[in-house]
Amino acid sequence: MSRAVLDIMLNEMQVWLNEIDREQLYNELLTYFGLVGALNECQALEYAWQDPYNKREIEDFIKAWLKRKRRKEIESITWIV
Prior knowledge:
By secondary structure, the protein is mainly alpha-helical.
């Protein structure tokens, strides 16, 4: 259940990630928004997603996370060549 909220978020944003990336994003998202260790992390994330301000902040975080991931992938390919 805990990852279902993230799946809903990513589906709404039309973002598809493999399981490893999704897990990493989930953990970083919870850490960034201070939800790690919350009584019910999933429910707290779901409530945050329903609030328009928090939703925009979460979307911005995910977009920035994807850009960093893409940049790291490009850098690693550059070093190989």
